[in-house]
Amino acid sequence: MLTDQEREEIEAELRRYPDKRAGCVEAMKVVQRHHGWVSDDSLKSLALLLGMTCEELEGVATFYNLIFRKPVGRHVILLCDSISCWIKGCDALRGHVTSRLGIAMGQTSADGRFTLLPIVCLGACDHAPVMMIDDDLHGDLTTEQIDHIVERYP
Ligand code: FES
Questions:
Q1: pLDDT tens digit sequence for 90-113
Q2: How far apart are CA 5 and CA 153, in angstroms?
Q3: 75, β-bridge pairs
Q4: Exposed, middle or buried: residue 87 (CB in 10 Å: 0-12, 13-18, 19+)?
Q5: Interval between CA 125 and ligand 1 midpoint (Å)
Q6: 128 lines ligand 1 (CB under 6 A)
Q7: Cα–Cα distance, 4 to 10 (Å, whole number)
Q8: 87 in contact with ligand 1, CB cutoff 6 A
Q9: CA of 92 to the centre of ligand 1 (A)
Protein backbone atom coordinates (compact mmCIF):
# COMPACT_ATOMS: atom_id res chain seq x y z
CA MET A 1 0.00 0.00 0.00
CA LEU A 2 1.40 3.38 -0.97
CA THR A 3 0.74 6.43 1.17
CA ASP A 4 -0.80 9.54 -0.39
CA GLN A 5 2.57 11.26 -0.02
CA GLU A 6 4.41 8.44 -1.80
CA ARG A 7 1.81 8.36 -4.56
CA GLU A 8 2.09 12.12 -5.04
CA GLU A 9 5.91 12.00 -5.24
CA ILE A 10 5.83 9.03 -7.61
CA GLU A 11 3.36 10.73 -9.91
CA ALA A 12 5.59 13.83 -9.99
CA GLU A 13 8.54 11.60 -11.03
CA LEU A 14 6.48 9.77 -13.66
CA ARG A 15 5.50 13.02 -15.37
CA ARG A 16 9.13 13.24 -16.55
CA TYR A 17 8.77 10.06 -18.63
CA PRO A 18 6.78 9.42 -21.82
CA ASP A 19 5.89 5.93 -20.52
CA LYS A 20 5.35 5.44 -16.81
CA ARG A 21 7.08 2.05 -16.90
CA ALA A 22 10.29 3.91 -17.75
CA GLY A 23 10.05 5.65 -14.37
CA CYS A 24 9.92 2.42 -12.39
CA VAL A 25 13.36 2.83 -10.80
CA GLU A 26 12.52 6.38 -9.69
CA ALA A 27 9.20 5.13 -8.33
CA MET A 28 10.96 2.44 -6.28
CA LYS A 29 13.46 5.04 -5.04
CA VAL A 30 10.57 7.14 -3.71
CA VAL A 31 9.29 4.16 -1.71
CA GLN A 32 12.79 3.43 -0.52
CA ARG A 33 13.28 7.02 0.64
CA HIS A 34 10.20 6.66 2.83
CA HIS A 35 10.78 3.15 4.20
CA GLY A 36 14.45 2.38 3.66
CA TRP A 37 13.56 -0.57 1.39
CA VAL A 38 10.88 -1.86 -0.98
CA SER A 39 8.60 -4.47 0.60
CA ASP A 40 6.52 -7.03 -1.33
CA ASP A 41 3.37 -5.02 -0.56
CA SER A 42 4.91 -1.81 -1.90
CA LEU A 43 6.19 -3.65 -4.97
CA LYS A 44 2.67 -4.96 -5.71
CA SER A 45 1.16 -1.48 -5.37
CA LEU A 46 3.89 0.02 -7.55
CA ALA A 47 3.43 -2.64 -10.24
CA LEU A 48 -0.28 -1.85 -10.37
CA LEU A 49 0.37 1.89 -10.59
CA LEU A 50 3.00 1.44 -13.31
CA GLY A 51 1.05 -1.07 -15.40
CA MET A 52 3.72 -3.73 -14.90
CA THR A 53 3.59 -7.25 -13.52
CA CYS A 54 5.20 -7.88 -10.14
CA GLU A 55 7.68 -10.17 -11.89
CA GLU A 56 8.74 -7.42 -14.30
CA LEU A 57 9.22 -4.93 -11.49
CA GLU A 58 11.03 -7.50 -9.36
CA GLY A 59 13.37 -8.12 -12.30
CA VAL A 60 14.27 -4.43 -12.41
CA ALA A 61 14.60 -4.23 -8.62
CA THR A 62 16.99 -7.15 -8.42
CA PHE A 63 19.03 -5.96 -11.41
CA TYR A 64 19.46 -2.47 -9.98
CA ASN A 65 21.59 -3.07 -6.91
CA LEU A 66 20.68 0.15 -5.10
CA ILE A 67 17.09 -0.93 -4.66
CA PHE A 68 16.85 -2.87 -1.42
CA ARG A 69 14.31 -5.69 -1.26
CA LYS A 70 15.05 -6.47 2.37
CA PRO A 71 15.17 -4.13 5.36
CA VAL A 72 18.55 -2.42 5.76
CA GLY A 73 20.26 -0.59 8.59
CA ARG A 74 20.06 3.17 9.18
CA HIS A 75 23.18 3.53 7.05
CA VAL A 76 24.20 1.40 4.08
CA ILE A 77 27.91 0.92 3.44
CA LEU A 78 28.72 0.00 -0.16
CA LEU A 79 32.27 -1.26 -0.42
CA CYS A 80 33.63 -1.34 -3.97
CA ASP A 81 35.27 -4.62 -4.94
CA SER A 82 35.98 -3.93 -8.62
CA ILE A 83 39.42 -4.07 -10.17
CA SER A 84 40.99 -0.73 -9.15
CA CYS A 85 39.79 -1.05 -5.58
CA TRP A 86 40.91 -4.68 -5.48
CA ILE A 87 44.42 -3.69 -6.66
CA LYS A 88 44.48 -0.98 -3.97
CA GLY A 89 43.59 -3.38 -1.17
CA CYS A 90 39.81 -3.54 -0.77
CA ASP A 91 40.08 -7.13 0.50
CA ALA A 92 41.99 -5.97 3.57
CA LEU A 93 39.54 -3.12 4.10
CA ARG A 94 36.63 -5.54 3.86
CA GLY A 95 38.24 -7.70 6.53
CA HIS A 96 38.68 -4.65 8.73
CA VAL A 97 35.11 -3.40 8.30
CA THR A 98 33.50 -6.79 8.83
CA SER A 99 35.51 -7.32 11.98
CA ARG A 100 34.88 -3.80 13.30
CA LEU A 101 31.12 -4.00 12.70
CA GLY A 102 30.84 -7.67 13.63
CA ILE A 103 28.94 -8.53 10.45
CA ALA A 104 29.67 -10.27 7.17
CA MET A 105 29.01 -8.76 3.76
CA GLY A 106 25.28 -8.67 3.13
CA GLN A 107 24.40 -8.43 6.81
CA THR A 108 23.03 -5.72 9.09
CA SER A 109 24.55 -5.00 12.51
CA ALA A 110 22.50 -6.13 15.53
CA ASP A 111 21.89 -2.50 16.55
CA GLY A 112 20.43 -1.76 13.10
CA ARG A 113 23.06 0.89 12.46
CA PHE A 114 24.85 -0.45 9.38
CA THR A 115 24.22 -2.76 6.46
CA LEU A 116 27.35 -3.76 4.59
CA LEU A 117 27.12 -4.57 0.88
CA PRO A 118 29.55 -5.09 -1.98
CA ILE A 119 29.22 -2.84 -5.01
CA VAL A 120 30.72 -2.73 -8.47
CA CYS A 121 32.86 0.21 -9.58
CA LEU A 122 31.59 3.48 -8.14
CA GLY A 123 33.30 5.48 -10.87
CA ALA A 124 35.93 6.93 -8.57
CA CYS A 125 38.80 4.58 -9.42
CA ASP A 126 41.35 7.40 -9.16
CA HIS A 127 40.53 7.46 -5.44
CA ALA A 128 40.52 3.70 -4.92
CA PRO A 129 39.83 2.05 -2.55
CA VAL A 130 36.39 3.59 -2.30
CA MET A 131 33.17 3.13 -0.36
CA MET A 132 29.86 4.91 -0.11
CA ILE A 133 27.89 5.41 3.06
CA ASP A 134 24.35 6.46 2.19
CA ASP A 135 24.92 9.21 -0.42
CA ASP A 136 28.49 10.06 0.64
CA LEU A 137 31.50 8.85 -1.33
CA HIS A 138 34.70 8.17 0.63
CA GLY A 139 37.93 7.51 -1.25
CA ASP A 140 41.64 6.86 -0.71
CA LEU A 141 40.61 4.74 2.24
CA THR A 142 42.80 3.26 4.89
CA THR A 143 41.68 1.20 7.86
CA GLU A 144 42.29 4.21 10.14
CA GLN A 145 40.16 6.47 7.98
CA ILE A 146 37.35 3.94 7.93
CA ASP A 147 37.35 3.92 11.73
CA HIS A 148 36.94 7.71 11.79
CA ILE A 149 34.39 7.79 8.98
CA VAL A 150 31.99 5.23 10.46
CA GLU A 151 31.88 7.22 13.71
CA ARG A 152 30.19 10.04 11.79
CA TYR A 153 27.12 7.86 11.14
CA PRO A 154 25.15 7.36 14.38
S1 FES B 1 37.03 0.06 -9.05
FE2 FES B 1 36.35 0.93 -7.18
S3 FES B 1 35.71 2.91 -7.75
FE4 FES B 1 36.26 1.99 -9.64
A1: 999 999 999 999 999 999 999 999
A2: 27
A3: 114
A4: exposed
A5: 4
A6: yes
A7: 10
A8: no
A9: 15
